[in-house]
Design the sequence.
């Protein structure tokens, strides 16, 4: 089995990433496999503490027995687009994209396994069946799913070459000054808080284009077009300028006056080339409940 590290894996320990990839096998067993040379990175032996880089090729020549099975669950899927090779779902806020070490139920993958069974790509292991890219648990919106490995590779290459257009809507705290602003600031992992990202000179190029939709007295409704797709990119960029996404408790200043389950951020537009054709697919979904609730609150205060 070969696993290619993506930008979300960069900066993380080899043994920790493999607790997801290897079907939730215990970390101690994974460390033993690494030390025994059964798991290599770019054809070389590494320590369990090796820090991954994007595009690192992890080869697993011996996989320990599974400890926990990822069970299919009959969870309703909001399918926005589907063809013979892929689908696009509208992931609700609060749902994990794929299982983790601590959570193996009620994720998007559990729902996909129930509906599609083995007809999902497995390039990234059983825990990430069909998953080409991810959304944070509390970010809702459009997510592409591959039904086979060739499609997975096709879509992953489009993402890598920035050929897929992803647009988000959000409400941020405070009044955003410029009508349209391109933010090109590198993002890397926060060394003091590894679960967070930050603007840093030695980070990866990260570009977002912010367009103001409506200004309120205490907040601004914006759209964000991603040129790159770094981990937490929108949340980091808006927070850096002093306008964190509303109710973002990780990068903001805590909960706002209107209660929602975490950040008011939604992936609502997606434009891509249909796999193995020249057809362009453009998708758009309505604003979700969180966005509407907060938008209406601030609009009501204006009257």
Sequence:
């Amino acid at each position: 089995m070969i696993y290619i590290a993506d930008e979300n894996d960069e900066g993380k320990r080899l043994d920790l990433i493999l607790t997801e990839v290897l079907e939730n096998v215990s970390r101690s067993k994974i460390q033993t496999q690494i030390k025994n040379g059964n798991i290599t990175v770019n054809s070389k032996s590494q320590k369990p503490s090796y820090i991954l880089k994007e595009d690192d090729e992890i080869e697993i020549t011996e996989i320990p027995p599974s400890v926990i099975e990822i069970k299919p669950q009959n969870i309703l899927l909001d399918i926005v687009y589907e063809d013979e090779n892929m689908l696009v779902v509208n992931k609700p806020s609060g749902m994990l994209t794929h299982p983790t070490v601590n959570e193996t139920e009620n994720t998007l993958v559990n729902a996909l396994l129930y509906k599609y069974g083995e007809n999902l790509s497995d390039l990234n292991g059983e825990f990430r069946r069909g998953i080409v890219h991810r959304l944070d648990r509390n970010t809702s919106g459009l997510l592409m799913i591959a039904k086979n490995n060739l499609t997975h590779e096709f879509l992953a290459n489009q993402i890598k070459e920035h050929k897929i257009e992803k647009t988000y809507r959000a409400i941020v705290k405070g009044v955003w000054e410029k009508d349209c602003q391109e933010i090109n600031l590198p993002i890397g992992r926060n060394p003091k808080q590894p679960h967070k990202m930050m603007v840093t000179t030695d980070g990866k190029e990260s570009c977002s284009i912010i367009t103001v939709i409506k200004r309120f007295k205490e907040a601004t409704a914006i759209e964000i077009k991603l040129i790159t797709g770094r981990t937490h990119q929108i949340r980091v960029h808006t927070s850096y300028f002093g306008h964190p996404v509303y109710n973002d408790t990780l990068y903001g200043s805590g909960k706002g006056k209107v209660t929602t389950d975490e950040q008011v951020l939604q992936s609502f537009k997606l434009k891509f080339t249909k796999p193995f054709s020249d057809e362009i697919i453009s998708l758009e979904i309505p604003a979700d409940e969180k966005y509407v609730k907060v938008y209406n609150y601030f609009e009501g205060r204006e009257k």
Remarks:
- Residues 121 and 130 are 5 Å apart (CA to CA).
